[in-house]
Amino acid sequence: MAEFIKAVEASKVPPETMLTVEVGGESVLLANVDGKYYGMGAICTHEEWDLSEGTLEDTAVTCAGHGTVWDLKTGKGVFDEPLQDEPLYDVKEEDGFLYVKRR
Ligand code: FES
Q1: How many domains would you assign to the chain?
Q2: How many angstroms separate the alpha carbon of residue 94 from the centre of ligand 1?
């Protein structure tokens, strides 16, 4: 995913919400924090729960599975010990759509 790929209408990710989308064969968690968009891998690297089922507070995503807190800015999460990092994605809004590109 070297270029930006169209993911979803921006209106589907209103402020303080998250949505998992399939883009370029990857599951991407899109989050809107106070109008700024973040993109991170959507499948928890602990036991593969969908992170969009968790809760969002500022840039912290708490997995609904077992409570790992992920940081949308770094892709890092700790469950007893650090888990495998989530990939991060750049997100841009254009013409009412969100586009993502893996970093
Ligand atoms: S699956 Fe996410 S914390 Fe266990």
Answers
A1: 1
A2: 33
CATH code of residue 60: 2.102.10.10
- pLDDT band of 69, cuts 50, 70, 90: very high
Q: What strands, in cross-sheet order, belong to the sheet with 97-102?
A: 5-9, 97-102, 88-94, 36-41, 26-33, 17-23
CB of 58 sitting under 6 A from ligand 1: no
C-beta 51 within 6 A of ligand 1: no
Confidence of residue 2 (pLDDT cuts 50, 70, 90): confident
CB of residue 64 inside a 6 A radius of ligand 1:
no
